[in-house]
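In the current project phase, the collection of sequences with tokenised folds has grown. A representative record is quoted in full directly below:
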Amino acid sequence: MTSGDDTQPFLRSDVTVELVKSSASDSDVLFAARVSTLGEQSLEELQKDPERSKGLINFLMRDRHGSPFEHNSMTFFISAPIFVFREFMRHRVGWSYNEESGRYRELEPVFYVPDESRKLVQEGRPGKYVFVDGTPSQRAAVQSVLDESYQQAYAAYQKLLAEGVAREVARAVLPVGLYSSMYATCNARSLMHFLGLRTQHELAKVPSFPQREIEMVGEKMEEEWAKLMPLTHAAFNTNGRVAP
């Protein structure tokens, strides 16, 4: 990453994901499932027989009884390029979003550039392609062109603001490589659906081909979720990473 003065873009190649609030545990799945047969006695079953609880969660995941996985909540703070958020917000069921507003605040000059690990070149036709590293020349071109473009775009944004143009109009010159921030709230079922589509994993029954930058967000969210609901996370992996 590089930085400069107030008008010089600050370049990032990472994303930020922080779990800021949660009410999520494997027991949330258990009492929701057992109420079907035990009614009000379902709460008394939570402390009984951990192995039986593990088996129940695996059964629910395997046979795709999904609603018991909705009785929990996780709120994440995420900072990532705008193009990541445009993909992210295609996930609507079971998600709530509030994003930083370019109408109400002056946007900071923080922009995305891929690091050395990001594959740059797409080979093959749509639906049947792979990404490869690219040449040193291509990598240098990406770095220099993005940096120059970001500088010009942010300078234009500052010029319009100095002329008294409203922020909601001036922001039109800024590219999707600009970083934004948001809070995203979900439950385990909606998160599993997101992870099934937006991450690649050797245990996945159904292959996915996510853009690397949104996969970076998904990986960090999964790390936090796995700590909160280890039995549910294990069952998700065991059963091919398909949301129930």
